[in-house]
Structures are given as structure tokens and as C-alpha cells.
Specification:
The complex is a heterodimer of chains A (115) and B (112).
Chain A: E1 3-7, E2 10-13, E3 19-26, E4 32-38, E5 44-52, E6 55-58, E7 65-70, E8 73-78, E9 87-94, E10 105-106, E11 110-114
Parallel strand pairs in A: 2-11
Antiparallel strand pairs in A: 1-3, 3-8, 4-5, 4-9, 5-6, 7-8, 9-10, 9-11
Chain B: E1 5-7, E2 10-14, E3 19-24, E4 30-38, E5 45-50, E6 56-59, E7 62-67, E8 72-77, E9 86-94, E10 100-102, E11 106-111
Parallel strand pairs in B: 2-11
Antiparallel strand pairs in B: 1-3, 3-8, 4-5, 4-9, 6-7, 7-8, 9-10, 9-11
Classes of the chains: A mainly beta (115), B mainly beta (112).
């Protein structure tokens, strides 16, 4: 069966510090991978998605970047955190391809607080 | 970026009440709609996937309908139970890429 891991679970970082959140998927190959953020009182915002190694698409301009160094590894990074980067970050995967029924499976999330 | 709207933002009902909420989306370039249930301290889990106009899905006491021509979906819960308390998210998948656009969710609280 497939599992998705995300770490750390919680993180408190000062403004201007770097960030690295990691997500790995087990039990599947060539998945589509996603990073979402939920800011306080808001819905899930798609930040990045990837259909393969080294292929990253960004949905909105922001202070964050993503990388996919391996097939089942997705990393979210920042060089200098802003207060507005605080939120709940979710990684998700879906079966590769563009099928309508390819549901997403979410990781446990990371609560990031920038002070 | 697709604008997906959900209403109401939150809902408080008594155990045994039936309830429903709405997901609205642009009807052009529609590909699929997914409903997710997100319980506190857990990850979102898929409830339904709907693609065709007029689709109706049912799982136990929860059901959903889809109108792609006018751009909305309803989620119904019959006889709400405290364990139904969660945030219900809808997500639209547009054609072309495997991307999902989520609404802000409806937070349901069922009081015993």
C-alpha cells in the first residue's frame, strides 16, 4: 500500500531564516506531487506541483521554491522566511497522468509559525 | 487559477439534523470535482469524485450532486452525527493538467 510522509510536523522559525520541508511517498512510482498551504482562516492554496523528476510548476509567485530530486521526494524551500509564510503545509500525491478520477492522497502536514 | 467557492463557511447543527452545503465553480473547462473530508488532526480524505453533469454519488448518509452547466455541486448529510464534524472541501480539476483548485471549505460541527 502507498504511504506519504511529511516532516517536520511542527516548526517555529524566525523571520529571515531558511526553510526546508520534505515529503516522500512510498509504494508507488512516478506520482504527481503537490504542495499546498492553508493560511489561517483560508482554504487550501496550491503552491507547486510536479509531474516528474526536476519538473516543477508554480501556481503563484511567492517566497518559496520546490524541488523534486528523486521520483518520490518533494521538497519545499525558502531562503528567507516572511511572516506571511506562516500556515499549514500539506504535501499530496496522485497517480501519474491526467485522469479525472485520480484522487489526491495527503500527508499529515507541517504547521509552520514564523515569528 | 480557478475560483472555487464554498458556502456556508461554517455550520452548527444538532445531532439528527440533515444538512447540505454548496460548492460553486466556473463551468467552463470543467474536468472533475472531488469532495474531501478533513477531520481535525488528520489528513483530508476523498469522499467522492464526480465528472458528469447530473452525477449523483452516495456513501452511507452522505450524498452529492453535480451540475456542470451552472457550475455547482451540493453535498448532503442525512441525520448528522457528531462523528460527521469536519471540514468538507471541494476541489475542481481543470482539463489539461492534473491540478486541483480547492475551495475554502465548510466547517461542520454536529452537537450531540
Amino acid at each position: 500500500s502507498q504511504t506519504i510522509h511529511q516532516w517536520p510536523a511542527t516548526l517555529v522559525q524566525p523571520v529571515g531564516s531558511p526553510l526546508s520541508l520534505e515529503c516522500t511517498v512510498e509504494g508507488t512510482s512516478n506520482p504527481n506531487l503537490y504542495w499546498y498551504r492553508q493560511a489561517a482562516g483560508r482554504g487550501l492554496q496550491l503552491l507547486f506541483y510536479s509531474v516528474g523528476i526536476g519538473q516543477i510548476s508554480s501556481e503563484v509567485p511567492q517566497n518559496l521554491s520546490a524541488s523534486r530530486p528523486q521520483d518520490r521526494q518533494f521538497i519545499l524551500s525558502s531562503k528567507k522566511l516572511l511572516l506571511s509564510d506562516s500556515g499549514f503545509y500539506l504535501c499530496a500525491w496522485s497517480t501519474g497522468g491526467q485522469g479525472a478520477y485520480n484522487e489526491q492522497f495527503f500527508g499529515p502536514g507541517t504547521r509552520l509559525t514564523v515569528l | 487559477i480557478l475560483n472555487v467557492e464554498q458556502s456556508p463557511q461554517s455550520l452548527h447543527v444538532q445531532e439528527g439534523d440533515s444538512t447540505n452545503f454548496t460548492c460553486s465553480f466556473p463551468s467552463s473547462n470543467f474536468y472533475a470535482l472531488h469532495w474531501y473530508r478533513w477531520e481535525t488532526a488528520k489528513s483530508p480524505e476523498a469522499l467522492f469524485v464526480m465528472t458528469l453533469n447530473g452525477d449523483e454519488k452516495k456513501k452511507g448518509r452522505i450524498s452529492a450532486t453535480l451540475n456542470t452547466k451552472e457550475g455547482y455541486s451540493y453535498l448532503y448529510i442525512k441525520g448528522s452525527q457528531p462523528e460527521d464534524s469536519a471540514t468538507y472541501l471541494c476541489a475542481i480539476k481543470s482539463g489539461g493538467f492534473n491540478k486541483f483548485y480547492f475551495g475554502s471549505g465548510t466547517k461542520l460541527n454536529v452537537k450531540p
